[in-house]
């Protein structure tokens, strides 16, 4: 389906990941001409938990992408297992979630944006843009960040026995998530401080083997790709910022929420779609930021507080007292509950 701009305005979207492609689709649905700028070759594997909350379905449906998403045959995830040191907590999810690789998810959204009529470019074109969506990804840690506390992400796909659960292991200030994705693969993805990774010379296999519950869980699995790394990372949001008018940050460029929540991809698509609509309609950038804060601010604050506790001994005693579904819902964007 193709659309024609109602007013001749042009929206420039920087970045064609989930947030950028969602923005491009939404802007086209609102009648704007769209220039979609992406320097990297797509699709590509990226460090990501590859967990998609069940609430992603209605968001993709509004973008006209739900059929393509289901055609990709994402794994269905029905349970949540949380491991805090020696203790574990299990619960069913309120609704089945999805597991789909970033390689496949990014590709289907990008193709959807092109099918909707977005114009792909490697560099911004000479034509002026009435509005710009910034969806180029997260900020790196700055030079002032202490070396030992800098965070790095890692990810690889594995073959072997898999379950219908998303599993999270918290230990030594790090955590590792394990979840099924499409075509029988299992995604193993984590985040750890530099001081911990340096103890293992950044050998993630050695890090997994050092934690007995993880070593036992991954023993029957076989790694199917090299480890991918990203970082240093910093958790940051722009909810208090005042971007220039007609500029709309989305996805990780707006708010890099702690990945353990499993709401990163949902937030990226939600804020991307909102940015695309706002840009196409000429809405105030401040009003856009305010609406995003209503959507994500509470979840960002709660996830930050939870992570400060999750890697400590205190979590082993507190977590079993909280219902699993309650922990899950605390980090959901309110509009997605």
List keywords for this structure.
five-stranded parallel sheet; 337 residues; nine-stranded mixed sheet; alpha/beta
Please characterize this protein's 3D structure.
The protein is α/β, with parallel strands linked by helices and 337 residues long. The chain is 34% helix and 25% strand. The strands form two sheets. Strands 3, 4, 5, 8, 9, 10, 11, 12 and 13 form a nine-stranded mixed β-sheet that branches. The protein has a five-stranded parallel β-sheet with strand order 6-2-1-7-14. The protein starts with 9 loop residues before the first strand and ends in a 7-residue tail after the last helix. Residues 1-6 have low confidence and may be disordered.
Strand content: 15-25%
Number of helices: 11
Q: Tally the beta strands.
A: 14
Q: What structural category arises from helix and sheet content?
A: alpha/beta
Mean pLDDT: 85
Distance between the termini: 30 Å
Taking Cα atoms only, what radius of gyration do you get, to the nearest Å? 20 Å
Percent range of helical residues: 25-40%
> What string, H for helix and E for strand, traces the elements in order?
EHEEHHEEHEEEEEEHHHEEEHHHH
**Shape type:** globular
Give the biggest sheet: 9 strands, mixed
Q: Low-confidence segments, ≥5 residues, pLDDT <50?
A: 1-6
